[in-house]
Amino acid sequence: MLDYKLLEALATVMECGGFERAGEALGLSQSAVSQRIRALEIRLGQPVLVRHPTLAPTPAGQRLLNHLQQVRLLERDLSTALPTLETASPRLRIALNADSLVTWWATAIGDYCRQAGALLDLVIEDQDVGLKRLRDGDVAACLCANPQPIAGARCIPLGRMTYLPLATPDYIDRHFPDGPGEAAFRHAPAIIYGPHDQLQHRFLARCGYHGPFPYHLCPSSEGFLRLARAGLGYGMIPRMQVEERLATGELASVAPGEVLEVPLYWHFWRHSGSLLAGLTTQLEAVELS
What we know:
InterPro entries: ArgP, LTTR, LysR_HTH_N, LysR_subst-bd, WH-like_DNA-bd_sf, WH_DNA-bd_sf. Keywords: DNA-binding, Transcription, Transcription regulation. Pfam families: HTH_1, LysR_substrate. Belongs to the LysR transcriptional regulatory family. The protein has a domain at 161-262: Periplasmic binding protein-like II (D-Maltodextrin-Binding Protein, domain 2). Helix content is 44%, strand content 20%. It is built from 13 helices and eleven strands. Helix 10 (199-206) links the parallel strand 7 (190-192) and strand 8. The chain is elongated.
């Protein structure tokens, strides 16, 4: 039989990114957390964590984390059927991209989470890499641009987000006086969300440019927009985030007519209970643009 205290220790280490913070979250010493992980590895006869160069679950650890995610959700269904069974409020750990969070996500799921009494543990990841979190057993579901389902999970297309290459009119006058072209792209500072963000590269490739370009790194959707509004650079911004600013002329496209359509897919573990199934139903009704 599995000892779920040991599995909770494993999950908390991964969620907190280390043993010391996991101990603080569990009310244990770092040594006690390490002992629980060691006890789990002895029981299994194999390691569950790779500690170097970065902390990551082994294949066995991934399977255990995936199992625990589903058990947590199924326990919620059991407590509904057996009201005398005390359980904590269900917490859904979900990976999603920052642009979805800052635009449509809260509106789409707000009513359902309030009615279900669900708590969210949101992990922000670029839409191109979020699926790794689900594969590693770190989350129960993820929102990403990858359409390929993984074993034991389902994948549902939700629609597309439209991105535009935007900057202030003054910035465009300074850096793109003759419109988009190789010389402008080589020298005009861009804004990129993070090292995994490929939207800017895709846009430049569509325009026929494949060379180097200067850029700011800004891992915040709100900060990204603020940099663009301050005239520090141009970047790929969701249209639904800036419709009013486009209408007033505060922001404009550096390449009118050029857009990027990014598909979004909802991945979640099969047999994870009614809470995640209900959330999935809510998301299927979302209209993205």
